[in-house]
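Annotated sample (chain length 64).
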Amino acid sequence: MAINRKKHKAYISRGNVFKSVTASRKRARALGLKGIHSHGRGDNKRFMPGSSHQAYLNKVRKRK
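Output written by the structure step:
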């Protein structure tokens, strides 16, 4: 599944979608998450903090 820019606009605007694994891991540590997960394939592959998308969402919701 590729990143849908309309659907994932909030994640992109928060700066939590990355092209590189290293940047995603760094952001995960800053958020207090372990691991990263990916969306898409090939050149469209993007990485996000958190071992799963649900783990990421849970952490972001708690921070508000």
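Annotation: Helices lie at 9-13, 21-31, 53-63.
Annotation: The mean pLDDT is 84.
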